[in-house]
Amino acid sequence: MNTRGFTLLEVLTVIAVLGILMAIATPSYLAYLQRLTVQQGVQQFARDVDRARSQARRTNSCRIFSVVGPSSYQIQSYASPNCAGTPITETLNMPAGTQLTLKSVQGSASFRPPYGVNFTAMPVDVTVASTSHVNVTRTLRITAVMGSVVIQ
């Protein structure tokens, strides 16, 4: 007798093995997704700080970068190089699943021409964390003098 196909026992064995593999792999995959989301938030934040700094140099005007909440930050653009006058404010949000925590006393960085340096005289430390898993964090520092971003 020539039969084709699989027996019920073979199918159940394959399903059981796949279930065990899924149970082992799922937590690792979810942790990977959380780390990826935090990394995307860190890269977005660093990119926006660098953009504000380079615009201050390029346009010969002042830019103030500040954290305004757990999921947002803003860039204030002034027409003058000494941060006088009424700013144009751009509020930006972090990616979904991430939040900002200010770790330093100084909550803003002021970039002024001609070199786009940070005139606040103190570094700004910000932690980007996952909202669903508190152990997934990255810290950024906007340096005191040069205003560059260091990802730790």
Summarize the structure.
The chain is 34% helix and 31% strand. With 152 residues, the protein is an alpha+beta fold.
Describe this structure in words.
The chain has 152 residues and is an alpha+beta fold. It has one domain: minor pseudopilin epsh domain (minor pseudopilin epsh fold, 3-Layer(bab) Sandwich). Helix content is 34%, strand content 31%. It contains 1 helix and 9 strands, in the order αβββββββββ. Strand 7 and strand 8 form a beta hairpin. The longest helix has 52 residues, at 8-59. It starts with 7 loop residues before the first helix and ends with a strand.
CATH superfamily membership:
minor pseudopilin epsh domain
> What percentage of residues falls in helices of 4 or more residues?
25-40%
Distance between the termini: 68 Å
Tell me the series of helices and strands, N- to C-terminal: HEEEEEEEEE
Mean pLDDT: 89
Alpha carbon gyration radius: 24 Å
Q: How would you sum up the major sheet?
A: 5 strands, antiparallel
Question: Which range does the strand content fall in?
Answer: 25-35%
Total of helices: 1
The secondary-structure class comes to alpha+beta
CATH fold node name: minor pseudopilin epsh fold
Number of domains: 1
Strand order of the largest sheet: 3-2-1-5-6
Main location: membrane
Keywords: Cell outer membrane, Membrane, Periplasm, Transmembrane, Transmembrane helix
Pfam family, one: N_methyl
Membrane topology: Single-pass membrane protein
SSE map:
Layout: H1 8-59, E1 63-69, E2 72-77, E3 88-93, E4 98-102, E5 108-112, E6 117-118, E7 124-130, E8 137-142, E9 149-151
Antiparallel strand pairs: 1-2, 1-5, 2-3, 4-7, 5-6, 7-8, 8-9
InterPro entries: N_methyl_site, Pilin-like
Membrane topology: Single-pass membrane protein
Protein name: Prepilin-type N-terminal cleavage/methylation domain-containing protein
